[in-house]
Amino acid sequence: MILLQASHIEKQYDGHVVLTDGNIVVQDKERIALLGQNGTGKSTMLRIIVGEEQPDKGTVSVQRSTGIGYVAQFVEADNDLSVYEFTAQTFETIIKMEKQLNDLELQMANPDVYSNTQRFEQIAASYDKLRQQFTDADGYAVEAKVRRVLKGLGFASEIWNSGVKSLSGGQKTRLSLAKLLAQEPDLLILDEPTNYLDTKTLVWLESYLKTYEGAILLVSHDRYFLDAIATGVYELRDGKTQRFNGNYTDYVEQKAEIVELETKHFEAQQQKIAKMEEFVQKNLVRASTTKRAQSRRKMLEKMERLEKPDASVDKLALHFASHRTSGRDVLSVENLSAGYNGIALGNPVNLLVRRGDRLAIVGPNGIGKTTLLKTLVGRQVPVSGHVRWGTKVDLGYYEQEQETLDASKTVLEQIYDEFPQLNLTTVRTALGRFLFRGEDVEKPVSALSGGERSRVALCRLMLSQPNVLVMDEPTNHLDLLAKEVLEDALSEYDGTLIFVSHDRYFMDALATHVLHIDEDGIKLYLGNYTEYIHKRQDEEQWDSDTNDKGTSRTESTQSFAESDSTAKSQRGVLHVDNTSVRSADLRKARETVEILERKISEVEQSLADVSGQLVTASMSADVDSLQQFQQQLSSLEQQHEELLTAWEQGAEELERLTELDRQNRRQK
Questions:
Q1: H or E element: which one contains 634?
Q2: DSSP designation for 71
Q3: Which of 84, 201, 273, 302 is within CB 3.0–4.6 Å of 197 for a Cys-Cys bond?
């Protein structure tokens, strides 16, 4: 069944054409990804679909009774509600019903009420009717839905009562996503949902969306996420959309096949045209063959000429080169504590980074990864400990928000003033490699988008020719093509790389080591992201089997100085330590969740039954029974709460095992 159909959408702003023929169809339970370079109109297409903007031409049709939920790329959730209240807003009617039920229960327990038979019967009848409406609306499951999405999206229960106004911009966007997921609309429309999510939360969101009952339409530049979620892809290019089946990897392969096939057809037609033109040229002047030549010429004139397939698009021309080679020991960190105002954010760090190492730093949001990088490059004073850079180290730092760009300058002035040894032509050529051409170089820095600011920052890094790159979320604001170009450039880079990222494809392509930071401590892993994940899962399985959780979790002294030559030779080579998931463990986890769900359903039915008995006792003015049923109701509500908590824990374990099993199957 088609839930949504956008047909022949056209849109322009002040003469600038954005969409010329946008078409998207979303069927029930489909997961559709809308892909394209930054600025091609993806977000515009979504806003038109949800009715926030009107198309110049074209239509959007939505199946009757289809509920649509939309979270934009940037959200401002400013109000006086708490985190929990904001998320539960979508259930406002049900929550009001629950409060009314509680009020009616208190009234029925009031001696002044139940001694008045007529008044009591009126309240009891209202209670019975409202209780049935509450049950039909699945009211008993509301709390479980809200708690699950808040916990899954990284909102600790300690901040559920905090005001929404106290949250950062990223947290507000994440909270709006939580509210939408709790609502469970028939069609989820998500614009960059992975922004502001750490790796753990990303994995949870993937798992949640895989089992989502409705359909999904999303824009994302996270290739790992797209591979896990998408069942269909629309590419938006030059204002037009083209449909591909499968996930991101399937899309890349299909697109290459289509371009190859179209190229063959084009070349075959060109050969045919050349032969026909040659025949016409040779035979047109001969009396015996003039008619045949004229016929061929008419065929040529009527022939529908194929356009030459053009798979190329404007992309960055990025290349990092070191001005000189650094010493062997690039960075030595001893008992370093990073933080603010003398307060350390985490455990002390000890590291030895050597020339050629590529260190990815991962951990939950707020753990202090950016603070650590700022401390390493000298932007922030350590709380304690020492940072020592090696000999001949030329440092290049890419900051997450590009705070050091001068908003008062143009793009050209920013680079030209920073590199006075370069002439104007060289600077313009360099900016051209980052897609700043013609009048674009005169754009004020203050008016640049996030992607454009990132390109200016990368241009600065390239021109400075450092032999050590320290990068904080370098793929933020970059589209898929720009990410791939950056990966290629860093893969060929002959220097040392230290970076923070939540982009799992990016880490897989580049990292030789992963430094994991969390509340329990710091630990170094040899290998890329996939190897790191498998080793973490090995440890968790070991902890589970031995009931010795926490062992080896607080190691904070790590070194890249590998004494084993075999270990050294494995740097950058994908070698997966397969962690098998026993079918018995997966079955047991699934059965545990199913048992808890059955128990929750039974308790919810008991709650409904006791509520009905409470009404009956109320109508008969049976005070003893009334008190007894109220006690049972309180006991059942407490039991319901405990079962919900156990179910959340069981569901998390099942999601973890299922994801691990999926990864193992994919490796095989």
A1: helix 623-667
A2: E
A3: 201
**3-class SS at 333?**
strand
- Closest-CA residue to 148 (of 617, 600, 562): 600
Beta strand 329-337 with 384-389 is antiparallel
Is 415 within 8 Å of 463 (Cβ atoms)? yes
Q: In DSSP terms, which residues pair with 237 in a beta bridge?
A: 240
Averaged over 10-22, what is the pLDDT? 90
Scan for tokens 């028939």, then name that residue.
Answer: 186
Average of per-residue pLDDT across 55-79: 81
Inter-CA distances, 362 with 52, 533, 611, Å: 37, 11, 50
Identify the band that residue 390 occupies on the pLDDT scale cut at 50, 70 and 90.
Answer: very high
Q: What is the pLDDT of residues 276-325, one digit of tens each?
A: 888 888 877 776 778 788 888 888 888 888 887 765 566 678 889 898 99
Identity of the residue numbered 52: E
401 with 526, same domain?
no
For residue 268 the two structure tokens come to: 């075959």
**Token pair 């322009």 in the structure block, residue:** 12
Residues contacting residue 87 through CB under 8 Å, at least 6 positions apart: 146, 149, 150, 175, 178, 179, 182
- How far apart, in Å, do the first and last CA atoms of the chain sit? 35
Beta pairing partners, 500:
361, 472
> How deeply is 276 buried, as exposed, middle or buried, from its count of CB atoms within 10 A (0-12, 13-18, 19+)?
middle
**294 and 284 Cβ atoms separated by less than 8 Å:** yes
Q: What is the dihedral of CA 405, 409, 412, 414, to 10 degrees?
A: -30
- Residues 369, 496 share a domain: yes
Sequence-ordered list of residues with C-beta below 8 angstroms from that of 525, at least 6 positions apart, any chain: 513, 514, 515, 516, 531, 532, 535, 536
Whether 327 and 384 share a structural domain: yes
**Per-residue DSSP letter, 557:** B
Task: Answer whether residue 275 is part of any domain.
Answer: yes
**99 conformational bin, left if phi > 0, alpha if psi -120 to 50, beta if neither:** alpha
In sequence order, the β-bridge partners of residue 557 are 350
| Beta strands per DSSP E along 90-224 | 187-191, 215-219
What is the Cα–Cα distance from 317 to 436, expressed in whole angstroms? 11
- Are residue 372 and residue 505 in the same domain, yes or no? yes
Contact predicate 216/180, CB 8 Å:
no
Q: What is the DSSP string of 456-468?
A: HHHHHHHHH--SE
What is the amino acid identity at position 203?
V
* CB distance 84 to 150 below 8 Å: yes
Number of domains in the chain: 3
pLDDT tens for each residue of 419-461: 999 898 999 998 988 888 888 888 888 888 778 888 899 999 9
Do 473 and 366 share a structural domain?
Answer: yes
Q: From CA 529, how far away is CA 576, in angstroms rounded?
A: 10
CA 186, CA 33: separation in Å to the nearest integer?
16
Structural domain contains residue 503: yes
Evaluate if residue 567 carries a pLDDT over 60.
no
| CA-closest candidate to residue 331, choices 389, 380, 385 | 389
Which of 411, 439, 464 is a domain's end point?
A: 464
* CB-side neighbour CA atoms (13 Å) of 227: 15
Element (H, E) at 472: strand 468-472
Q: Considering the domain boundaries, does residue 372 fall inside one? A: yes
C-alpha 209/C-alpha 198 separation (Å) is 16
* Beta strand segments in 80-214, E: 187-191
